[in-house]
Amino acid sequence: MFQLDSPLTAEIRGERSLMAFPFFALSKNAWMKPLTYDHATVSIEVRPSASGVATIYDKEIVLYIASLMAAKIEAGEDVAQDFVFTAHDLFSVTGANHSARSYGRLSEALERLQGTQIKTNIEAGGEGEEGFFSWLSEARLHYSRTKTGERRLKAVKVRLCDWLFRAILRDRQVLDYAAAYFQLGPIERRIYEVARSTCEDGPDGVARLEIDLATFRLQIGYQNPLSNFRAALKQIAGTDTIPDYDIALIETAADAETPEKPAVKTGRGRKTAPVSVVISRRVRTEPESPALATPADSADAK
Hints:
By secondary structure, the protein is an alpha+beta fold.
């Protein structure tokens, strides 16, 4: 018999560094190319396995596990790196249907989470480390047999990597997610995560982030040309789909191009005026749900 850590009765939460930086592929299909991020003091390298890089949709499992762990910590319970849960509860929390196809996707996602290799200089729990790690060092689906011989999934057992376990346990930089997160597309999910983890209060008391388009593209982890990214952001800004946040694209004067705010090249090689992305948090009418800790000003990095 398994001692289940599910069901999850608290809100979905995520570790701040995983929200702020691009560790996952923005794809529903297998992404077979390495991902790299090297900006300011933070470097990240992600290598695919034979089944590809873990995707933003695979990340749902990591968020679910982090939420189980955060709930245990808040309840004063002991926590270990092994977690056991039911697929039924995972699907209920993330809004997935309970079809055979979802169970097949779960198996594939666990394989990518275990096979993807990550290397970063972001410290966790006051410790840095050299070399690669996987999100899950173990991932197993445990079945039983019915009287007719049909397999029935009883539980999912995983072991969370040392890096993320330390970050959640010691740093306590864990933030809650909006309930609508799982209904968002890949780019919208990343915009929400970056906004949630990096917006800082301005003089007017409104949490805001202003960043140049090229740097924002890096932080989102968007792999296509900058002009495509600008078009995607413009559409998202027009539909107002990011929970709790407003997004706007602001063009500056054409002669105001700087290394920090470069002009955007179009598909034909022409340049348009430099663009800044401005994200601001909408004024809440209700108190915000508490997190394990207030987010730090920046990620710890070597």
